[in-house]
Design a protein that fits this description.
The protein has 299 residues and is α/β, with parallel strands linked by helices. The protein contains 2 helices and 19 strands. The strands form 3 sheets. It has an 11-stranded mixed sheet with strand order 1-2-3-4-6-8-10-12-14-16-18, with no helix packed on it.
């Protein structure tokens, strides 16, 4: 038993030394920013604040470089060398260039690129990150289509594409992401005008948060919207939606968990459904700057 433990310990030390060399090279390629000066050759990377290691084998599984004043591109070698990486946070920096070359991070579950200077298209083979559960690319300069390959990320629970420069289409099949709980696509008004397809809400049984403000939506809110029984927050404001609010089962089924609804600044018309007054969890309902008629429902 002791021999076996010694072999494991030696293997772990060798592996960790190799990963330390990789991270020190990463530090160098990022211009040795003062914010990560604690990275050095005399300490274990598992002791560095920005690094998370697996508890047993001490392999690097997480890198958090949030707000580190990084201004250089992420080197393409990162995931070629850190095979066990599960979490990568590069948010709130000044990182330029295209989507990082990290598609071979096959174990990556958490990826945050928000608030940087990334530009260009989302790679069409993003589906290679098949373990991804959390993806946030908010506030960058990505453009083109939101690729259909996104909907192949079947483990996704959180997807935020807010405030980019997308000027193409977005995949309606996102409704097939059965594990999705949070979808934020707001402030992408350069997208090609589109309706909300009924398929969008097909399999979203766990869906809690929908933010589609100012993304060039038109047409009616589909009746399938009523199927989102777990929904807590919905914002469809500042679009060109028309027609009436879907009635169907909306008051009893959809309203069972809703706390916030914003339909303001559209072209919706007709009466506000009376059943809305029975939403016991509602805290905020906004519907200004539309063309509604009739009375406001009273609880």
């Amino acid at each position: 038993m002791s021999i076996s433990f010694q072999v494991i310990s030696q293997t772990t030390d060798h592996h960790l030394n190799a990963e330390r060399s990789i991270l020190l090279d990463l530090k160098l390629q990022l211009g040795s920013p003062p914010s990560i000066q604690s990275w050095n050759s005399s300490s274990s990377p598992c002791d560095w604040p920005e690094i998370t290691c697996a508890p047993l084998y001490k392999s690097v599984i997480g890198i958090s470089l949030h707000s580190k004043n990084i201004t250089r591109k992420i080197p393409a070698t990162l995931c070629h060398l850190l095979h066990n990486l599960k979490s990568l946070d590069l948010s709130n920096n000044y990182i330029p260039g295209g989507f990082p070359d990290i598609l071979n991070c096959s174990k990556l579950e958490y990826l945050v690129l928000s608030h940087n200077y990334f530009t260009g298209p989302i790679p069409p083979d993003i589906h290679q990150l098949s373990s991804l559960q959390y993806l946030d690319i908010t506030a960058n300069h990505f453009f083109g289509d939101i690729p259909a390959d996104v909907v192949q990320l079947q483990e996704l629970r959180y997807l935020s594409l807010v405030r980019n420069e997308f000027n193409g289409t977005w995949p309606v099949e996102v409704g097939n992401l059965s594990n999705l709980e949070h979808l934020a696509m707001a402030y992408n008004h350069r997208l090609v005008p589109s309706t909300i397809p009924k398929e969008l809400f097909g399999a979203l049984n766990k869906f809690k948060f929908l933010w589609m403000r100012d993304m060039n939506l038109m047409g009616r809110i589909p009746e399938s919207f009523n199927n989102l029984s777990s929904l807590e927050h919905v914002d469809l404001s500042f679009n060109n939606l028309n027609g009436s609010i879907p009635r169907g089962e909306l008051p009893s089924k959809l309203g069972s968990n809703l706390s916030s609804v914003d339909l303001s600044d559209n072209r919706l018309s007709g009466p506000i459904p009376v059943g809305i007054s029975s939403w016991v969890t509602i805290e905020e309902f906004k519907a200004s700057n539309n063309m509604f008629s009739g009375n406001i429902p009273v609880a």
